[in-house]
From TrEMBL:
This is KCD17 protein. InterPro entries: BTB/POZ_dom, SKP1/BTB/POZ_sf, T1-type_BTB. One of its GO terms (molecular function) is cullin family protein binding. It comes from Lanius ludovicianus (Loggerhead shrike). PANTHER family: BTB_POZ DOMAIN-CONTAINING PROTEIN KCTD17, POTASSIUM CHANNEL TETRAMERISATION DOMAIN CONTAINING PROTEIN.
Length: 214
C-alpha cells in the first residue's frame, strides 16, 4: 500500500510540475533577450518580447525554439528567406501595434509577409485598408435621371436657357401640332433632359430640389 501511495504522489508532482511550466512566465532574463534575425541578408535586432506579441506567429515560435529548427548565420542570427523591405513594417507593428508604410510600399507585399509570419491582427488591418481603398476607387457610378418635358416651339429656347444646374439637354422630339383649329398652330415638342445623380456616403441620392422650369 505504501508503494502505491508513493507512486501516486510522484504522479501528482509530475502533473503539478508540468502545469507550472505553462503558468509561470519565464524569468525576466530570458524574456528580455535580444534576438537577431537575418531576413534575406538584412539583419534586424529585436527582443523576444516583441516577437512574441503575437503568440501564434512564426516569429514567436521561432525564438521560443519550438519545433522550428531554423538555420543561423555566422553571427547566430536566425536566417529567414524573405524580403527584408517588408519586414521592417511587420517588426514595427509588433513593437507598437500600428501599421506604418512608406508611400511607395505596396500593401499586397505586406499582406503576403503578414500571412507568411502568421500575424492575424496585421492581416485584418491590411485587408480592411485594401477594401477601403477599393471602395474609394470604385465609387458608385452616377445614375442618370431622365425627364421628359412637353413644350411649344416658342417656349423652347427659353426653357433650354433656364434649365437648372446639372440638367443636360438630351433630345428633342417633334410631336407635331396638337391644335387643329385656327392659325394658333403651334408645333409641340417633347424635350428630354437628363441629370447625373451621385450617391452620397449615407446612401441617399443627392439631388437639388429645384427642377427645370417649364
Amino acid at each position: 500500500g505504501v508503494r502505491m501511495r508513493m507512486e501516486g504522489r510522484e504522479e501528482m508532482q509530475g502533473a503539478v510540475g508540468l502545469r507550472c511550466t505553462w503558468d509561470i512566465p519565464p524569468p525576466a532574463g530570458s524574456q528580455a533577450k535580444w534576438v537577431r534575425l537575418n531576413v534575406g541578408g538584412t539583419v534586424f535586432l529585436t527582443t523576444r518580447q516583441t516577437l512574441c506579441r503575437e503568440q501564434k506567429s512564426f516569429l514567436c515560435r521561432l525564438c521560443q525554439g519550438e519545433e522550428l529548427q531554423s538555420d543561423r548565420d555566422e553571427t547566430g542570427a536566425y536566417l529567414i528567406d524573405r524580403d527584408p523591405t517588408y519586414f521592417g513594417p511587420i517588426l514595427n507593428f509588433l513593437r507598437h501595434g500600428k501599421l506604418v508604410l512608406d508611400k511607395d510600399m505596396a500593401e499586397e507585399g505586406i499582406l503576403e509577409e503578414a500571412e507568411f509570419y502568421n500575424i492575424g491582427p496585421l492581416i485584418r488591418i491590411i485587408k480592411d485598408r485594401m477594401e477601403e481603398k477599393d471602395y474609394t476607387v470604385t465609387q458608385v457610378p452616377p445614375k442618370h435621371v431622365y425627364r421628359v418635358l412637353q413644350c411649344q416651339e416658342e417656349e423652347l429656347t427659353q426653357m433650354v436657357s433656364t434649365m437648372s444646374d446639372g440638367w443636360r439637354f438630351e433630345q428633342l422630339v417633334n410631336i407635331g401640332s396638337s391644335y387643329n383649329y385656327g392659325n394658333e398652330d403651334q408645333t409641340e415638342f417633347l424635350c428630354v433632359v437628363s441629370k447625373e445623380l451621385y450617391n452620397s456616403p449615407n446612401g441617399l441620392s443627392s439631388e437639388p430640389s429645384h427642377k427645370a422650369k417649364v
